[in-house]
């Protein structure tokens, strides 16, 4: 079984968001983070695969035997 690709990292969320292109997507992402920050009582964390996540939970699949941690809520400003 392969290793889980989506993991919490130590990358700085604000620095990452400042690198997002184009500018409209960057500004929308910064605004979305502000909304999440004001509503949720959790710190934003950078997860691999360009995800900004809040909180986490541990899951374990009985069918595939896969397990890992996943954000409770997240968004990603990556390409569409």
From the structure above, extract its key features.
3-stranded antiparallel β-sheet, 80 residues, 2 helices, globular, alpha+beta, two-stranded antiparallel sheet, 5 strands
Instruction: Output the strand order for the largest sheet.
Output: 1-2-5
Helix/strand structural class: alpha+beta
How would the global form be characterised?
globular
Q: In DSSP terms, counting alpha (H) and pi (I) runs of 4 or more, how many helices? A: 2
How do the helices and strands follow one another from N- to C-terminus? HHEEEEE
What helical percentage do the residues reach? 25-40%
What is the CA–CA distance across the termini? 29 Å
Domain count, please report it. 1
Characterize the biggest β-sheet: 3 strands, antiparallel
Summarize the structure.
This protein has 2 helices and 5 strands; from the N terminus they run H-H-E-E-E-E-E. The chain is of the alpha+beta class and 80 residues long.
List the helices and strands and how they pair.
Layout: H1 13-18, H2 23-39, E1 44-47, E2 51-54, E3 57-60, E4 67-70, E5 73-75
Antiparallel strand pairs: 1-2, 2-5, 3-4
Task: Report on this structure.
With 80 residues, this protein is an alpha+beta fold. The chain has one domain. 29% of the residues lie in helices and 24% in strands. It contains two helices and five strands. The protein has helices at residues 13-18, 23-39, and strands spanning 44-47, 51-54, 57-60, 67-70, 73-75. The strands form two sheets. It has a three-stranded antiparallel beta sheet. Strands 3-4 form a two-stranded antiparallel ribbon. The protein is globular, with a radius of gyration of 14 Å. The chain starts with 12 loop residues before the first helix and ends in a 5-residue tail after the last strand.
């Amino acid at each position: 079984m392969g290793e889980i690709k989506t993991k919490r990292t130590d990358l700085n969320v604000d620095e990452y968001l400042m690198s997002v292109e184009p500018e409209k997507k960057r500004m929308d992402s910064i605004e979305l983070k502000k909304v999440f920050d004001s509503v949720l009582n959790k710190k934003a964390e950078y997860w691999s695969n360009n995800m900004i996540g809040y909180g986490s939970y541990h899951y374990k699949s009985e069918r595939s035997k896969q397990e890992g941690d996943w954000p409770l809520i997240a968004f990603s400003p990556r390409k569409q």
